[in-house]
Amino acid sequence: MQVRDLEKISEILAENYPVPETELNHNSPFELLVATILSAQTTDKQVNKVTENLFQKYSSPEDFAELEPKVLEEEIKSIGLYRNKARFIIETSRKLISDYQGKVPADFAELLKLSGVGRKTASVVLCSAFNKPAFPVDTHVLRVANRLGLADSSNPDEVEKQLKDLFPREEWGSLHHRLIFHGREVCQARNPACEICDLRFYCRYYQNS
User: Which of 23, 27, 33, 51 is CA-nearest to residue 106?
Assistant: First the structure.
């Protein structure tokens, strides 16, 4: 794909989704970390329903570190994989206290040392909590990037690398959000709305369909 096409795709996405921010409600890097751990295989909307009450009761690593898993499981049981996620959050909270003075590290390698934190979660925290360049790849980003021809892989890590190679560092975070919004609203997994998509003339999937 030529540079002018990449620039046009970025321009159209910016016009259509002018506010590239996470839809996970949070008031601190720690709350965003917890919400992102909860969001695996769950919608942001469902996570926000749970955290609306959860963060009123518990909002710091110290709060969560003292909980028994059963207590936290009860709070988040409407979310998929809630038992594992409860354990991850409690373990992460305790590690933040023991190793990071109760603060979420603004470093990719350090974030990966936390329970329940993979590349996507670490990248979300970096770009949305600390405004650092990162390109999280979730199912929406993976799908849209491949359909557009911006990437050619089913492996999220490889897609992340390919996208980072195509776009300037300062665009990574905003493009991540915009590709997610586009995937939710237009380029859905089933029955993508190609006929109303402003990117269709740059899209490999549309051209081949």
Answer: 33
